[in-house]
């Protein structure tokens, strides 16, 4: 319902050029009564600055929008409005049902028997497998959703064996990592600097992130992360499970660098962290280098993850080594502090 000439009705309302019944206003948002309420008390919260879509809205205005919606929801019943529940509803884009292209959050009072419901076609909802959920979640986790201002978590652990050293990852390592993480690029496309920062900073709060160095030169990265895959956690209840994810620079591949780094971190996991099992997740069947490096360290194939036909994620394996297996292979004897 944008007015001809590019004039926006919500901008006009806030500028006092169109009538509205205001209920709230601060530096970021205004709220006023919807003129065609779904239930009595139906409020619209809009940003003060014009933003057509969510993607155009600044982070602070986004926060204030929701916060105002939350506060107004709390005010509804106190104001004597019939309100046993509330729906916050925001339609973004034409496909999402947006009619006025100035972001607005509906605050809708609800009560039992009000006859309102969100509907969907009979073929929804469909239940999907955990693998499918993980695939989608994995693609989302790669986005820089957090845009975290917090740097990679610092830790004081350095591990070494011969010329191979694992030292803490820092904020100075992004450019080197960008190179080896995209060599070759992932099935889902190249990682941007934002991708890398987002995912590694986030991971680091639940893991030890390391840079592998050979003769003082950065040769890859790897981390020992608390297990975050629900299907694996469910199969090993009550156990301290971790996962190792390595990436080795091309120039250092085929030289035993990955094998040495995985060995160092596996020992650290069992000896210092006292964990029960360590996994390597989603290793491609054709990634012989990875399978070899984990195999040399006693990791065994756990089960084949079946991916839906037509995807590019077929034939991935989860590998694992348990504390018992590591001990029986003489792991403790091999440990040199
Ligand atoms: Zn506007």
What does this structure look like?
The protein is α+β, with helices and mostly antiparallel strands and 337 residues long. It folds into 2 domains: 9-110, HIT-like (HIT family, subunit A), CATH 3.30.428; 146-334, Aminopeptidase (3-Layer(aba) Sandwich). It contains 10 helices and 13 strands. It has an 8-stranded mixed beta sheet with strand order 6-7-8-9-10-11-13-12, sandwiched between helices. Strands 1-2-3-5-4 form a 5-stranded antiparallel beta sheet, with helices on one face. It is elongated, with a radius of gyration of 27 Å. The site of zinc ion has 5 residues, from helix 1.
By CATH, the superfamily of the largest domain comes out as Gcn5-related N-acetyltransferase (GNAT)
Small-molecule binders here are:
zinc ion
Helix content range of the residues, please? 25-40%
CATH class annotation of the largest domain: Alpha Beta
Please tally the helical runs, counting DSSP H or I stretches of 4 or more residues.
Answer: 10
Strand order of the largest sheet: 6-7-8-9-10-11-13-12
**Percent of residues in β-strands:** 15-25%
- The coarse silhouette is elongated
Radius of gyration, rounded?
A: 27 Å
> Uncertain segments of ≥5 residues (pLDDT<50)?
1-5, 333-337
The string of secondary-structure elements, in order, is HEEEHEEHEEHHEEHEHEHEEHH
Give the number of DSSP strands.
13
Biggest sheet features: 8 strands, mixed
Question: What is the CATH topology of the largest domain?
Answer: Aminopeptidase
> Architecture of the largest domain, according to CATH?
3-Layer(aba) Sandwich
Number of discrete domains = 2
Q: Specify the structural class.
A: alpha+beta
What average pLDDT do the residues reach? 87
What is the CA-CA span between the terminal residues?
Answer: 70 Å
Q: Quaternary state, please?
A: single chain
């Amino acid at each position: 319902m944008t007015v001809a000439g590019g004039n926006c009705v919500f901008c006009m309302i806030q500028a006092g050029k169109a009538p509205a019944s205001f209920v709230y206003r601060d530096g970021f948002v205004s709220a006023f009564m919807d003129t065609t309420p779904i239930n009595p008390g139906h409020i619209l919260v809009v940003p003060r600055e014009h933003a057509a879509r969510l993607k155009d809205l600044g982070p602070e205005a986004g926060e204030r929008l929701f916060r105002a919606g939350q506060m107004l929801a709390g005010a509804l019943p106190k104001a004597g409005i019939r309100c046993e529940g509330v729906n916050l509803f925001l339609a973004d884009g034409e496909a999402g049902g947006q009619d006025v292209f100035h972001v607005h959050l509906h605050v809708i009072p609800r009560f039992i028997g009000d006859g309102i419901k969100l509907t969907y076609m009979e073929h929804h909802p469909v239940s999907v497998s955990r693998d499918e959920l993980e695939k989608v979640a994995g693609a989302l986790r790669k986005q820089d959703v957090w845009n975290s201002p917090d740097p990679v978590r610092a830790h004081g652990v350095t591990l070494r064996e011969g010329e191979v050293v694992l030292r803490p990852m820092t904020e100075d390592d992004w450019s080197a990592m960008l190179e080896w993480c995209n060599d070759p690029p992932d099935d889902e496309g190249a990682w941007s600097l934002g991708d890398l920062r987002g995912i590694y900073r986030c991971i680091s709060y639940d893991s030890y992130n390391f840079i592998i160095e050979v003769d003082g030169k950065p040769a890859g990265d790897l981390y020992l992360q608390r297990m975050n895959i629900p299907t694996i956690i469910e199969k090993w209840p009550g156990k301290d499970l971790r996962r190792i994810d390595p990436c080795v620079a091309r120039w250092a591949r085929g030289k035993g660098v990955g094998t040495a780094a995985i060995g160092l971190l596996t020992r650290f996991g069992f000896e210092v962290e006292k964990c029960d099992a360590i996994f390597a997740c989603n290793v491609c069947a054709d990634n012989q280098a990875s399978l070899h490096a984990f195999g040399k360290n006693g990791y065994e194939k756990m089960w084949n993850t079946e991916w839906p036909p037509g995807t590019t994620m077929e034939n991935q394996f989860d590998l694992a080594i348990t504390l018992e297996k590591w001990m029986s292979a003489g792991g403790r004897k091999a440990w040199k502090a």
